[in-house]
Every structure is written in C-alpha cells, then in structure tokens.
Amino acid sequence: MRLHYRSPRGWLNDPHGVIHRADGYHVFHQHAPETLDWGLGIEWGHAIGDDLFSLRYAGPAIQPGDGDDGIWTGCIVEDDLGPLAYYTSARQPVLGLASVRTARPRDTALTSWDKGDVVVTAPAGLGIRDFRDPFVLRDGDVWRMMVGSDSASGHAMMHGFVSTDGESWAYDGVALSRHRDETDGVWMGALWECPQVIEVDGSWVMLTSVWEAGRLHYAGYAVGEFAGGRFTPRAWGRLTYGTYYAPTVFRDAAGRPCMMAWLREVRGEDWTGCLSLPYVLRVDGDRLLAEPHPDLDAHAEPGTAERYTWLPEGLLELTDTATLELDGDVLRLVTPSLTAELPHDGGPVEVVLDDEVVEVRGGRGLLGGPAR
C-alpha cells in the first residue's frame, strides 16, 4: 500500500493522539507487533511523517507493565509542560472496565514515555460494565475529558470530567447519552467507544464508535452544541459503512478539523489492520461530511487509476474480483471478503483504490474496507 499507513508487522487498530509539531505529524495507534490478532498486550505504536501520507513506523511508545495489562486508546494534548498523554489502562480481571492514566515523553521525538498516575475511574451507581477511551480538550479556563461507557439502563454514555491543571480530575456528570432502543436518524448502540467532540463550521460534533454485545458496528455522530460540559444534539447520523471503526478527530497543521479511522479486516502476510485516509470534516445543515485531506493531491492525482470520480450507473469493476454497483438508492461494494452498502444521494462519488484497500466517498458518508 502506498496511501494507507500500516505497521511493519503485527496487529493494528485504533488511531489516536494525532498531533502536528515542528518536526511534522505524530500519529499513535493500538499495536500488537507479535501477533496478527487482537490480544491482551496491546501497546501504543508511534508513526511520524512530514504529512499525513508519509507516515512511517517509529517504534513502540507506551507499553504494558507497571500496573497496565493493556495500553488502550486515548489522546494527547499539550500544556505548559509539553505533550501529555491520557490512555486507557486496561487491567485484569475485567479489562473493559478500565481506568485513565497519564504519561509524559522523555524526549522531544516522543519515542519513550514515563507513566503517571491513574486520574479517572468509572463513576459508581450506573451499572457500568465497560468504561474507556479518554478524549481531552481545552474549554476556556478548564480542561474537559470525555470517556465512553455503557450503563445498566441501556444507555450508551459519554461521561464528562473537569480539571484546572490536567492532573487532578473531578466527575462532572453525563455529557451525552442515548438509549440503545432509539433509532431516530441512526441507531447508536449500547456502548460508545472513543467518543470525541470537535467544533466544525460553527457547530459541534460528537463522533463515536457504535458497539453492542461484543460487535463493532460503525461511526455514528450527533450534531449540536457543546457548552458547560454538556452536549445538546439537534440531529443524529451515520458517517461510515464497511469496516471503518474507531475514528479519531484532530486538527491538522492548518487548523482544519480532521479525522482518520481504523480499517478492519485489511491484512497481508505478516500484518493485520491499517489506517484509513485522513479526511477533513464539514457540517452541512445537520449532516457531517468528510472529504479527503488535501495532502492526498501530492500523492495521488485525481483522474488516475488510484483515485478517480465516478458518476454511479450500473456496475463498476474496481479490480478483477471487486465491484461497486448502483442498485436503486444504494451503492454496493462487493469484494472477496466484504459486502457493504452506502446510501446514495444521486451525486458523483470519489474512489481511492490502494492495493489491499478501497475507499469510496459519497454524499451520504464513507464506504470502504479490504479490496481483496
């Protein structure tokens, strides 16, 4: 693959901690270099690059040990002391009911980190069985942390915590929740993984991964307002179709709101999983839209076999074994390992075909996964 980042070997899942500094982009991701399957000893892998399509693996960043059985998804912010990581500290015997811990880098290249204290645990009294994936942002004079969970009531939840110094945190209540039986706009599951908030075109977006009963579904979102640590939705929607999961939001070197995700089921001889293309986010009315990041232009020109626009009609043969078909008001992607559909709004779609991966961007979202 030329346009999609993957680790040299082993298992890869959630991206997170995407930041731009003087030396370029730093992208962190879940990594198990010694196995092709998800396992207990997940660590943070680290990639660096001059742009988002020139990422190269730089080695492990934060690894299990010192009280952590698994180093799961988190984020990185910068305070007066420099980069500060918040990560999910998974511990046996109940890995999913995790805590949040901090770490700071020992060097300016961010290649090795010293772990800090556990700063957040799941709130009591809500029957929470799964709690993980901190996302931290600055809100005026305070820091706010969002963490996802399920609940005994059947509500997927995004919990809020607040801090003045980034080190001592107080529970601030449920920032947003939705019952698993609600389906208006989109079904949002029983647990939110990686819930994150970001301002896009004057609106706030909550983007999360939809989970229920051990099954990974898709990226769903709410568009609305975020104030005082509470998210007030005005509309719900679905962004991804296919094998996207665990999108992370960030701001690029130009300050644009962006996201990239994990693409499941993509694999090679000694590796499993890759990162999606990076996308710039837009809000049009109550809909969240994603457009390929402009850095793509320097790596794949429009109108080439790698990247082209198709006005859907009939059947498009992507490869000898993969097709994209317009069937009524849906686009259907069929590959040897995937069949997935994207609602179609009648407009053109952009196709990126990169060896093992295909991604399709249309007016109703993103459709993608393994091309083989």
UniProtKB/TrEMBL annotation:
It is an enzyme of class 3 (hydrolase). It comes from the Bacteria. Keywords: Glycosidase, Hydrolase. Gene3D superfamilies: Glycosyl hydrolase domain, family 43. InterPro entries: GH32_Enzymes (IPR051214), Glyco_hydro_32 (IPR001362), Glyco_hydro_32_N (IPR013148), Glyco_hydro_beta-prop_sf (IPR023296). One of its GO terms (molecular function) is beta-fructofuranosidase activity. The keyword Ligase does not apply. It holds the Pfam family Glyco_hydro_32N. Its EC number is 3.2.1.26. SUPFAM superfamilies: Arabinanase/levansucrase/invertase (SSF75005). GO terms for biological process: carbohydrate metabolic process. Belongs to the glycosyl hydrolase 32 family. This is beta-fructofuranosidase. It comes from Tessaracoccus lapidicaptus.
